[in-house]
Amino acid sequence: MTPRERKGPISTGSEWTFDLIRTYDHEIARIAERYALDTYPNQIEVITAEQMMDAYASVGMPLGYHHWSYGKHFLHTEKNYTRGQMGLAYEIVINSDPCIAYLMEENTMCMQALVIAHACYGHNSFFKGNYLFRTWTDASSIIDYLVFAKQYIMKCEERHGIDAVENLLDSCHALMNYGVDRYKRPYPISAEEERQRQKIREEHIQRQINDLWRTIPRGEHKSDERDAKRFPSEPQENILYFIEKHAPLLEPWQREVVRIVRKIAQYFYPQRQTQVMNEGWATFWHYTLVNDLYDEGLVTDGFMLEFLQSHSSVIFQPAFDSPYYSGINPYTLGFSMFMDIRRMCENPTEEDKRWFPDIAGTDWLSTIKFAMQSFKDESFILQYLSPKVIRDLKLFSILDDDHKDELLVSAIHDESGYRTIRELLAAQYNLGNREPNVQIWNVDRRGDRSLTLRHTQHDRKPLGESTDEVLKHLHRLWGFDVHLETASGDQVINVQHMPPRSEHAEGSEYPRLDLAFSPI
Amino acid sequence: MSYVIDRRLNGKNKSTVNRQRFLRRYREHIKKAVEEAVSRRSITDMEHGEQISIPGRDIDEPILHHGRGGKQTIIHPGNKEFTSGERIPRPQGGGGGKGAGKASNSGEGMDDFVFQITQEEFLDFMFEDLELPNLVKRHLNGAETFKTVRAGISSEGNPSRINIIRTLRSAHARRIALSGSSRAKLREAKLELERLKLQEPDNIGDIRAIEEEILKLRARIERVPFLDTFDVKYNLLTKQPNPSSKAVMFCLMDVSGSMTQATKDVAKRFFILLYLFLKRNYDKIEVVFIRHHTSAKEVDEEEFFYSRETGGTIVSSALKLMQEIMAERYPINEWNIYGAQASDGDNWNDDSPVCRDILINQIMPFMQYYTYVEITPREHQALWYEYEAVRDAFSDAFAQQQLVSAADIYPVFRELFQRRLAA
């Protein structure tokens, strides 16, 4: 479009109307096109605060199966909101095609415009461009799949009772973070196919399982070497996948439910890995786009003041000793980094040329697009965190070693500390470091069918206190004993059992406790 | 490329099912909280929900995560005075980093999970112990009693309410309206036919044409249905709330040494139930609390339920006081009077016949309903047998019941409700 014929701002009041939303969206789209932002079509839905709380409760899924934990989430949100302890998010955006963005009706016109720029052009283009989302999620089929999942689980509830399904889901949720493939691309999920294939899969899997657990004696010469081999021959990190394929006692419908939880975990996996980038990117764009609106005279000074007020509270970073401090604000970090990349491209300093010879002085738009498309939080920070951002945020690192009495400040924002801080901060966003490394190690196929997990310890970090509970859930899924070995290097230093074994019974005949936890 | 959709009118309670699932899962906790609330609240204060709090530890969803300990490095923003290599004492509250360790490592703390349940849910949980049937629960919960009254005619309704006269009248009107023009043409054609037959009896062609025309018109008129669906009219009934007026509820309780706090709690449930029941039926309710040991006294609710007295028991003192208050403050033509008496059955033996006489002669004639509950697992004593005489004399307005636990309260009410619902 050519520059607007109309002189003066689009709106002057703070009330929004549907026409105004359309006009703003139109103008923002025009400017976004100038930057060649590639987006899915937008579906902007205006909802009430109550509906926003519903959307919250379903953790960002536009529709989800029923589970008490979502009810808990809802009650929590509702309480905090009605007591005024918490504002609701201004928007929720869903990685789907078309990209669904929820706008709250309570927002002012300025907020609606901010949200449109942030969600419909920022997040949206991130979903479409970033390599993780491109590889791991299929935006066009997610809604269909969620519909399938919801209906399937409802059918299971009718057939097997609410309690049975709820217990199963509880167990799956406990292991949800261990239900993702980190390295291989999953099949795109589509509801139609899913429905058709689901029946065939049921029968097929059951047949395989039966084969695995075959008890008919084989020829003697073979059995020895087979038993000596560990099963699985390689450790498996996708615990839910392993359960789905190999748990001996699960019914076909239970395997399907495990699969559903696994698929949903996989869908959210990229979001968990790109929080800083995703929010930083969206914030960068709402800032840029709305400023352009202002430069063209399409919004008033009052609008701009309100915008800046919201913007700066979004990127507010309390210091570590502030009572409001709860870790690094991903909006702040991401926004500062993208702004800084642009600065380095446009006005590089000597330092930038030394640290980032590849990008200093290049075209900023293609540089940040490349950054957005090709990285996740960990690698993005490792690649682009500049000394300037470290200085601006005054980052420093604290080493907490439980063998020492004091904490060590290992690096601060000075020449000798930049690199260390950058590496440490990147590691902090590495999901592999954040979550304990627990993998399926062995199944005792010829013996008591027990399942052994191995936790490989990193920096002597122990497992949290809810591990026992998780093992109970795993035991419920597996149906036989579960052991969790903790290994440091190659040495096993601790073993947890579920059902628990008492000390003195160790090694001797111990009573089987299988029945204490009924296998669902 | 963008579509703007107004979703505000879509259902907003998408989470209702999940919320119910949650309440179902934690019903034990909620029931306990409700029980505590019942003993804490005033019996006239049942009109709102309750805040429930569940220990965070019971409600956590377990996941595998790192615990405290080992070597942890955390990056924090906002450095002020630290220099590289500096050692600082570990802040109190154990390991973790400064500040952030608390929030980011272990997720949410062990705070209680607090949420609200609605009044309806509150009452549901409260009634659960009492084993009330659903009809009664609904009654108590607020489904008011309505009187259905005629309110004219409507074109929608139940087949059993068809108004035949109106239906046929509107069918008739429709037939006239729809066939009007055809009928006029028919009339003309008939006239024309007659004229032709008289004046041009040889014009066979025209006569036949008109005869055909007449047949066609007749057929068209006949095609107009006799009765069409939109002719049907129904008598419309609307619901009007029952006229209600004022009621007073007397709560009488023995507070002598033999009444334990547990007994009093059962009595309290009983009084609450009666109160709620009256609340649904009357606009304005007053509650009079009378407690007695050897002498009776009108008190406020707090003192009624929670102060302890010792000494013997003379029930008639309370009845006498009640009778006086009735005469003085609650004229029978203005007030519906209900009485509820709770006791453990002890009475000074010579006093029981006196009680019977006071009830029969001075109280029962003015009563809507009087209930006596004896909260004791033991044998009946003299008072019970004397009251049996009262029951015989006023069988439709007097109930007595022995309670051992809260679950026994309902039978008393069954009688009361049956009577009300039948009326």
TrEMBL record, chain A:
Residues 15-433 form the SpoVR protein-like N-terminal domain. Residues 436-487 form the SpoVR-like C-terminal domain. InterPro entries: Spore_V_R (IPR007390), SpoVR-like_C (IPR057008), SpoVR_N (IPR056174), Ycgb-like (IPR057270). It comes from the Bacteria. PANTHER family: STAGE V SPORULATION PROTEIN R. NCBIfam families: PRK11767.1. This is SpoVR family protein. It comes from Pseudomonas matsuisoli.
UniProtKB/TrEMBL annotation, chain B:
Pfam families: DUF444 (PF04285). InterPro entries: UPF0229. Residues 68-107 are annotated as: Disordered. HAMAP family: UPF0229. Belongs to the UPF0229 family. This is UPF0229 protein GCM10009304_29920. It comes from Pseudomonas matsuisoli.
